[in-house]
Amino acid sequence: xxxxxxxxLDIDLSSGSVETRPLDMEIARQFLGGRGLGARxxxxxxxxxxxxxxxxxxxxxxxxxxxASASQTSNRFNVSSKxxxxxxxxxxxxxxxxxxxxxxxxxxxxxxxGRAEKPVMIEIAPEGVKIADASHLWGKGVFETTELLxxxxxxxxxMCIGPAGENLVRIAAIMNDGERALARGxxxxxxxxxxxxxxxxxxxxxxxxxDKDQFKFMQYETGKLLKASPLTSQALPEFGTxxxxxxxxEIGALPTRNFQQSQFEHADRISGEAITDEILVKNQxxxxxxxxxxxxxKTASGNEGEGPEFETAWAFGAQCGIDDLDLITEANFxxxxxxxxxxxxxxxxxxxMELAERGLLDSDLRFGQAEKLQDLxxxxxxxxxxxxxxxxGSVRLAAKHGAPELSMTVKGLELPAYDPRGxxxxxxxxxxxxxxxxxxxxxxxxxxxxxxxxxxxxxxxxGKAGIVSVHQNSAAVxxxxxxxxxANMAVAEEFFARTLTAVTGEPYTADDLMKVxxxxxxxxxxxxxxxxxxxxxxxxxxxxxxxxxxxxPSAGFTVNLAPMLEEYYQFRGWxxxxxxxxxxxxxxxxxxxxxx
Amino acid sequence: MIDERLYEEFRYIGRxxxxxxxxxxxxxxxxxxxxxxxxxxxxxxxxxxxxxxxFVETGLYTKDSGIVRASTELxxxxxxxxKTSALAIVHAHPRTAxxxxxxxxxxxxxDNEGSYLLRKIPVVSVExxxxxxxxxNKVSDALQGYKIIMQRGHGCFAIGxxxxxxxxxxxxxxxxxxxxxxxKMLGEPLIEYRKHSEGYKNW
Lengths: 596, 203
What we know:
The complex is a heterodimer. Chain A is α+β, with helices and mostly antiparallel strands. Chain A is built from 26 helices and 17 strands. Chain A has three domains: 195 residues, Aldehyde ferredoxin oxidoreductase, N-terminal domain (Aldehyde Ferredoxin Oxidoreductase,  A, domain 1); 168 residues, Aldehyde Ferredoxin Oxidoreductase Protein, subunit A, domain 2 (Orthogonal Bundle); 176 residues, Orthogonal Bundle (Aldehyde Ferredoxin Oxidoreductase Protein, subunit A, domain 3). In chain A, 40% of the residues lie in helices and 13% in strands. In chain A, a hairpin with a 6-residue loop joins β4 and β5. In chain A, α17 crosses α19 and α21 crosses α22. The longest helix of chain A has 21 residues. Chain A is globular and about 60 Å long. Chain B is of the alpha+beta class. Chain B has one domain: L-fuculose-1-phosphate Aldolase (3-Layer(aba) Sandwich), CATH 3.40.225. In chain B, a hairpin with a 3-residue loop joins β7 and β8. In chain B, α3 packs across α6. Chain B starts with a helix and ends in a 17-residue tail after the last helix. At the A-B interface, α7, α19, α22 and α24 of A face α1, β1 and α6 of B.
C-alpha cells in the first residue's frame, strides 16, 4: 500500500456480520484519514435521530495515509462517533502502537455497529477477523485485560475499555496499549453500550512510500527540525508535557479551584520539573517518535505507570487545589485502569468541590483534599455514591444542584488547563471547538505563550480570529494525516505535505492540506448544526465572560468574546448565525452534503 | 478601524523594514487579514513614520471606497489571502535579492540558516510589474507552495501568520542573497557541507 489500503472493515455486532468494503478514494483524497475521514463517514451513518448510546450509533476507527509509514510520529489513529456526553460530533485520537498495528492489518478504517447480546471482543489478524466471547474479561480493569489479551508492542496490540465504559460513564475512555487514551467526549461509553470489551490487532502489511528517495529526504529534513527545536529535543523529553505548568502559571493562565483564580500558589509542586525530580523513572516514546515525551513514573506505594501529562497534573492539581504530586499520579493511574478521561474527571471533581464549599452539594468535599481523589475516581467508574453524579458530567451535576454556572464547560465538554481570560485566542478556540471546550483542536499556547511560530499579544482580540481559524484548520489536518501535534510545533505543514506526496505518490502542497483542514472543520460544524446546535452554543462559562481575574498578570481581564466571534464567522465565510454560506460550502466541495 | 495593539505591530515592523534597508522610504507595502477584511498600508505612506491614519480597511472579497487610498498592490494582497492561508503579507524591495532575480529563476540558499528556513525561493516574471491581474495571479499561485517568492526585478512577497513572521522571511531572503553574491564575488568553489542539499532544488 502507498498511503491507503483502500479497504474498510465493517462489523455489525447485532448480526455478527463482518464485511470488507472498498474505501471511496475520492473521499479519501478530500478528507485524508483520521478525524477527517471519520467525520465524513459519520455524516452518512449517524443522523440526528440516533441516540449516542443506542445500537444505531457507530464507532469509526480511522488511520491516516501516513500511519505506519515510519515518518516521525506516524503512530496515531482516531475514533469518531456521536458523543454521549455532549451530543456533538466526537473525535478523539491516541498514540502508542495500536494505530500502527491496525494499519498493518491492511485496513484504513474499522466501523463497529450494533450491539452484541453479551460481552465480546474483536480480533483482527492475518488469519482473519473474529468476534469472540469476552464474558471472562467483563468487569476487569484495563491493565489486566490488556495483559490477558497478549499485548506485545510491535506484534499484537490491545485496545479495550475498563469498568467506566462498561458502566456507561459518559466520559469513559477507550484505552490502547494499556495506558494510552482515546478520551474526550466519552467513546468508552459508546463501546460499552455495544458490549464490546476489546479490539486486538496483529498485522503484517506495510505502508511503503511511493517515492522512497523523497521519503528518506523528508525523514532527514524533519528529523533536523525536531532536533533543532528546543521544545521537541529538550523540553518535552526532559520534563514531559507538564513542562508548561510553570510557564502557564507565571502568565496567570492556569485555572485554579474551578477557575476561581488563574494562578496556583503551588504550581511548582505539580510541574514538569517536580515530576522529573520526584517520580520519574524514565521517559518513553510512541512508535516511530524521537520526542519521547511520555513519563513513566513511580509513586511512593510502588505503583508504576504512564503519566501524569500536563492536563492530568492540572486537572487533579490546580483545578482541585491539590499539590500532592504522588496522589495526583495515583489518581492518574487509576483513571487509566478504569478507563476514564482525566481532564473531565479532575474538572468535574473541582466543580463538585466548589458546589460543596458553597453548600449546594451535601458533602464534606473541599478543595485540597488529595486523599479523596482515588475514591472519587473509583466511585465514578462504578457509579457508586456521589460517583454516580460525577459520571454524568459537570453540566448535569451543577444543574442538578442549582448552580449551572459552576460547570466549566463549552457544549457540555469540560475545559482544559488554560484560563482564556489570560489567553484571549484560547477563549475563541474553546467557544468554537466542534467537540466542545478543547485545546487540541487549535491550541493557542504556541502563538500566545510559547512564541511558536511567533509570539502574539495574548490580550489582543483584533485579527485573532484568523490565527485561531488557521490553527484549527491545521489541527484538523494533522488529526487527519494522522500526525502528533507536538511534531507540528517544530515542523510546518509544508513538510507534512511533501511527506504525504512521497508516501502516496499524489501531489499535495501545504495549502492543499490547509484546505483539507478547513473542509474537515466545516463538515464538523455542519454535523453539529444538523444536531441542533446553534450560535448560542459558541460561548463560554459566565465566569470567564463576566468575572475579571482578581490577581496576577491577567488581573482585570475577562474574555472579550463577542468581537472575536463576529470576526471569526466573517473569516470562515459563515453568516452572522454561524452557518457556513453556500459559496464556502461549494468552495470546499461540501455543498452536496448540506442539501442531502 | 485599526486598534492600538495591531497598529503598534505595523509601526515597529515598518520601522525595522526601513532601517534594515529592505525597501526605500515609501516603497513596498504590508497588510493583515481581519475576518473578511484587509487592513493595508495606504499608498505612499512612509515605512518609518507610520501613523494610525496611514492604514486603510477594505474588503477581502468585495470592493469599497477604501481602495482609493490603499496600496497599488491591493489586488495582489487580495489574491494571496484568497488563495493561501496567509494572515499577513509583507512586500519589500530587498536589493541583493532583486539583483539575483535578474539572472536566476530560483534562489537557493548556500548558508545554513537560509537553507534551514527557506530552502528555495522561486522567481516569477510578469510583464506588468505592479498591481496587475497577471501579477496577482502569478504571485498568489507561487505562494501556495512557498512562504516567500521573488518577482523578477521588482521585489519579494512574504506571507505569515503575523507581520513579524513575514518580515522574518524577507530579512532572511536578503541575508541569503548577500551571502550568495559575496561568495560569487570571492570566486572560490563551494565546499558542500549540507547532507541531501540536492533536495533543495526540487523543494
